[in-house]
Amino acid sequence: MEINTNRIQALPKVDLHLHLDGSVKPETLIDIARESGATLPVWEPEKLAPYMKVKGECKSLAEYLDKFHFVGEFLHTATALERVAYELVSQANDQNCTYIEVRFAPQLHRNNGLSLDEVIQHVRNGLQRGEETFGVRARIIVICLRGHSEEMNAEAIEVAGRFLGKGVVAVDLAGAEAAFPPEQFEHIFSRAVELGLPITIHAGEALGAPSVEIAVNKLGATRIGHGVRMREDASVMELIKSKHIPLELCPISNIQTKAVDSWEDYPLRDYFDKGFLVTVNTDNLTVSDTTITKEYEMLQKHLHFTDEEICKLVMNGVNAAFLLGEEKDKLRSEMELKLSQWLKSYAPSTTA
Fold first, then answer.
1. What is the pLDDT of residue 349?
2. What's the rounded Cα separation, in Å, for the pair 314 and 241?
3. Which of 181, 220, 268, 275 is least surrounded, with the fewest CB atoms within 10 Å of its CB?
4. What pLDDT is recorded for position 175?
5. How far apart are CA 218 and CA 204, in angstroms?
6. C-alpha span between 215 and 211 (Å, rounded)
7. Ordered structural domains, the chain, with CATH
8. How many whole angstroms separate alpha carbon 256 and alpha carbon 288?
9. Of 299, 241, 247, which is closest to residue 275 (Cα–Cα)?
10. How remote is the C-alpha of 164 from its chain's centroid?
11. Of 242, 263, 246, nearest to 203 (Cα)?
């Protein structure tokens, strides 16, 4: 299939699985380091990039996550948090992305004395300024981390509850999945349910299908971050399908982290054909050296999705968004119109 980058660039999109600290531009990190008096190993963007980006594939998810640790050392001030949040909305706008859900762990950004509420507020400020400038809607998903103490994660859930409806739309569990199975966090997420917080869980990436089942039945997940490996158990696949739980697949990242071995083995096409609510996302713009445009290009190149199927994937994302009520209805109507116009502009559709 011939891939037209300009056509996919023009495609209206959403991105539901997008990490703040995995999407910082090298140029921005250099500015932040200079302003704070911090030290970097190199000071040229092209030379700094290898410290922030995965080259090729990783041996494991843990190796992939090392890139976060490098960047995270610099995101502890109001100025830094607001800037990277604003720039993330700008990057989304560059890819014709209409709505994004930005996730991050607020406990990771407190080395300079910011409170949890202040961390959330500064990211919210940056996202709101981006929304005002570019017209891209941006909401927050608060992450609990598998490697954090129960107390730290409980605090994150409480602050998410305070900001629910004020920029925050959900909570998540992320981190080294294989080292900290999801059942350890049942108590934490029972509190999220009490607070009315929607839940998405990183599962079925570094661990197999049982982690997906536990995320749904024990932690209350109504979306699954990745879920690539749920295919290892037919009963888990049936659970996800029967409950209509969306999957936040991140194709390029999933291959980099060895959740799957290759494009030939990537299950997105199979899930889509079987009627699962598959959504397409970036995970980390910088770490994975990707864009939402690039993700859709790869789906057409390797998995032979037609333009009509691409539009269905985008609408899956719209319908899976954690927006509610009139906001959700408005986004749905807007995206249906935009996608219809896009199809007409680029008709006839190119098929495999």
1. 46
2. 18
3. 275
4. 87
5. 15
6. 6
7. 5-345 (3.20.20.140)
8. 8
9. 241
10. 18
11. 246
The more confident residue out of 228 and 61 is 228
Beta carbons within 8 Å of 291's beta carbon, 6+ residues apart: 91, 94, 95, 282, 285
* Residue type (1 letter), 235: S
CA 319 to chain centre: 16
Q: Report residue 156: phi and psi, to 5°.
A: -65, -40
HSE, CB side, 13 Å, CA atoms: give it for residue 108. 26
In this prediction, residue 69 carries a pLDDT of 81
Angle at 93 between CA 92 and CA 95, to 5 degrees: 70
What are the phi and psi torsion angles at 136 (to 5°)?
-85, 125
Backbone angles phi, psi at 133, to 5 degrees: -80, -45
Scored b (16 or more CB within 10 A) or e, 50-84 reads eebbbeeebeebeebbebbebbbebbbbbebbbbb
Which has more confidence, 79 or 351? 79
Element holding 314 (H helix, E strand): helix 307-320
Omega before residue 348 within 30° of 0, cis = yes
Residue bearing the bigger pLDDT, 51 or 339: 339
Neighbours of 152 (CB within 10 A): 18
Confidence of residue 285 (pLDDT cuts 50, 70, 90): very high
Task: Yes or no: say if 328 and 320 are a contact pair by the CB < 8 Å rule.
Answer: no
Which residues are catalytic, by number? 205
Residue pLDDT, tens place only, 10-33: 999 999 999 999 999 999 999 999
**And the tokens for 323?**
């927006």
Assigned token pair, 286: 């910088």
Counting Cα atoms < 13 Å in the Cβ hemisphere of 167 gives: 22
Residue 92: predicted pLDDT: 98
> In this predicted model, what pLDDT tens digit does every residue of 226-246 receive, in sequence order?
999 999 999 999 999 999 999
Residue 2 has pLDDT above 70, yes or no: no
Asked if 249 and 259 count as a contact pair (C-beta separation under 8 A), the reply is no
